[in-house]
Amino acid sequence: MGTHWFWLVMTAACVIWYSTITIYVALRGAVDIKEMLARLGRNGEDAGAE
Amino acid sequence: MRAASPGHDGASQHMGHFSWPIDGGIIGLYLLATMIAGIGVRRYVGKVEHFLVAGREMNLYLGIASLAATEFGIVTCMYTAQNGFEKGFSGATPGLLNAAAMFLVGITGFCVKPLRDSGVMTIPELFDKRFGKNVRWLAGVVIVLGGLLNMGVFLRTGGEFLVLVCGFSSDYIRNTHYLEITMTVLLLSVMLYTVLGGMLSVLVTDFLQFIVMSVGLIAVTILVLVNVGWSRMMTAVEAHYGEGGFNPFANEDMGVPYVLFNLLITFAAVLTWQTTIQRVLAAKDTKTGRQVYTRTSFFFVCRFLIPALWGIGALAVLTPEQYGGNTLYAMPIFLGTFVPIGLMGVLIAAMLAADMSTDSSYMLTWGGIIYNDILAPFRKRVHSDKQGILWNRCIVACIGIFLMIWGLWYKLEGDLWTYLGVTGTIYLSSMSVLLIACCYWKRANDWGAYGAIICGAAVPVLFLVLEIAWGKPALVDLFGKHVAYWSGISAYAIAALAMIAGSLLKPQQGRA
Q1: Shortest CB distance from B44 goes to which of A14, A26, A37?
Q2: CA–CA distance, B424 with B91 (Å, rounded to integer)
Q3: Burial code of B388-401, b = ≥16 C-beta within 10 A, e = fewer?
């Protein structure tokens, strides 16, 4: 019976964790992309200036 | 819309819930957004470093999204669902082991810290510094061989899922070429943005694909739990597998060899699987790379448990006649019977997203090894960035063409996860040994490295050859039913022994 409860807890944890992390990563990841492309754009301009 | 009726011959009847205007529209919108995003970033690619590791500008959350999207493809969904169908909840054991390995490596920085600190773009490049150019070249060959053989089954398996979940029969797969045509178009689309934008396109499309994939996975899982019910799923596992469906050690087909083999595979994959390690190498610093590992670790439980739940749902609902005796087909046939219009579009878009993110990353990373480690010794002069990017684009295109040919005609025999494990072991066994020795054993040298690479690859290749020549039943009769797991375990053990023996046998420089 112990292992049955284990899998119920794991299933609940997966659904809750995955739902939460999807929203959080969607928001923060979009900012990461914006910053990454801005840095690459700046680096490209610097290289062009040199 | 054609609804499923219980008792139908699901392997031969159309029973899908797919609406072209609604579901087709959702899928079309997703594909359009992906192509625009993937192709749009190509203008930022100015150097080979941009193409292969995104200029090492990847931040934490983009890394998490990219790693999660890459490590979940349709093929993952199929084999983990097959594991759930054939082994119950015990089939999700590799996910627990993978999560534990990833968390431990991330938190301790074991191997990944010295690897990222060294500033290399690939693992073989690190081996060059310690073991010499020949080991780098040989390591590159083994990595590409294992990786491409592994990836060879992705395309057909992905296509089979899409065809079955749309409600077409397994006969339809055999008698028409729509699967081949659909997957070829899909692969060409992935090739287009990967060839143009390299790792930058991969990261941006991975992010989009992570969101679409996650929404689809969560929605369908909730639908399965609500429609089938937890108690019915538990009863089905109990009835088919008893305690072995909940505890891998109590399962006759699994036991200690299965758990040990999967522990070794997952640990080695966390350390050396090129698509995984590429996220550490593309991270803006070592700390970010390690955080990507620790914070993505629980995803690997979801990666195995969510499709396993779908497989268990299929076990509870379908009769053997409905899935035609092929356990790999059970989950998509099951989903095709009850996922409603609208959500079906989200599910297929999610699975396309999963597959495209995996294909793009795999093509790019194996291409990077071919350029950086296998072809490098043959270059007479250093390539300019422009030449380097052109070479990388050509290599990615060649890998795509290889996959189209190999991936669509190769017919898999037996359990998909075991095939992936055995082909992955061709390089995982030796590369993990080499990486650990390279980072932490001062006495390790090229003799040991050659021994580990050759012995680590020989065992799984021998297993595959014998399986083709004699057939799996003959191998099981001769060596027992855990033969595949023992062959995998022995590959790791023999690779480690070869590293130790070779390194100790080579005379040390400066000694008489």
Answers
A1: A37
A2: 19
A3: bbebbbebbbebbe
Q: What gap in Å lies between CA B346 and CA B368, rounded to an integer? A: 33
Among B361, B374, B464, which Cα is nearest to B128's?
B374
Name which of B78, B32, B71 is nearest B335 in CA terms.
B78
* A44 contacts in chain B (CB < 8 Å): 44, 46
Q: Is B35 exposed, middle or buried (0-12, 13-18, 19+ CB in 10 A)?
A: middle
- Phi, then psi, of B72 in degrees rounded to 5: -125, 110
Among residues 164-203 of chain B, which lie with CB inside 8 Å of chain A? Answer: 200, 203
- CA dist B427 and B432 (Å) reads 8
Q: Which amino acid is at B453?
A: I
Tokens 């089938």 sit at which residue?
B228
pLDDT tens-digit series, residues B84-100 = 999 999 999 999 999 99
Contacts of B61 in chain A (CB under 8 A): 24-25, 28-29, 31-32
Confidence at B10, pLDDT banded by 50, 70, 90? very low
Nearest-by-CA chain B residue for A8: B230
Where do the H-state alpha helices sit in B41-177? Answer: 48-53, 60-70, 74-87, 93-108, 112-117, 123-131, 133-151, 154-165, 170-175
| Helix, strand or coil, per DSSP, at residue B283 | strand
| A interface with B, Cβ–Cβ below 8 Å | 3-4, 6-8, 10-11, 13-15, 17-19, 21-22, 24-26, 28-33, 35-37, 39-41, 43-44, 47
Contact A3 B247 (CB under 8 A): yes
- Does A33 contact B301 at a Cβ distance shorter than 8 Å? no
pLDDT (tens digit, 9 = 90+) per residue, B32-45? 999 999 999 999 99
List beta partners, residue B283: B58
Contact B50/A7, CB-based, under 8 Å?
no
